[in-house]
Design goal:
The chain is of the alpha+beta class. The chain contains three helices and eight strands. The two termini are 16 Å apart. The site of cobalt (II) ion has 6 residues, from strand 1 and strand 5.
């Protein structure tokens, strides 16, 4: 597995981009993940990406996260070649996942999240690129 991206929950993508543009120069990519009710901006940083996530609804996972804990680090994501095989392997080791099956992610990727109780309270995403 390799680190793919770091997910950051934000109230307003444009305001957060203003901060990062003071730190470095980049061209962000924007998209929206309807199933996660989130707007997304991707900031390339070397081989990984910062994934800014702005909720489009207060009852989304990101919306609830911000309401409870404020803006900030939301998850880290590892790339896997075969997400079903990875889920089977990790379930056999006692890890739980938030979704029974992989969910659609950005740009045709398939993702799932490991339950933070078993991962030292860090939400870990597995992502298989589309
Ligand atoms: Co992510």
């Amino acid at each position: 597995m390799k680190l793919d991206h770091v997910g950051i929950a934000v109230k307003n993508i444009d305001e957060t981009l203003t901060i990062y543009k003071k730190l470095m120069s980049f061209q962000e990519t924007r998209t929206e993940v309807a199933t996660q009710k989130a707007k997304v901006a991707l900031i390339p940083v070397g081989e990984i990406t910062l994934e800014l996530l702005e909720p489009t609804s207060e009852d989304s996972a990101i919306g609830k996260f911000i309401a409870e804990r404020g803006e900030g680090l939301h998850h880290i994501a590892f790339e896997v070649e075969d997400i079903e095989a990875a889920m089977e392997e990790f379930r056999a080791k006692g890890f739980r996942f938030l979704y029974e099956k992989p969910a659609p992610g950005k740009f045709g990727s398939r993702v799932n999240f490991m339950h933070p109780k078993e991962t030292g309270r860090i939400l870990i995403e597995l992502t298989q690129h589309g």
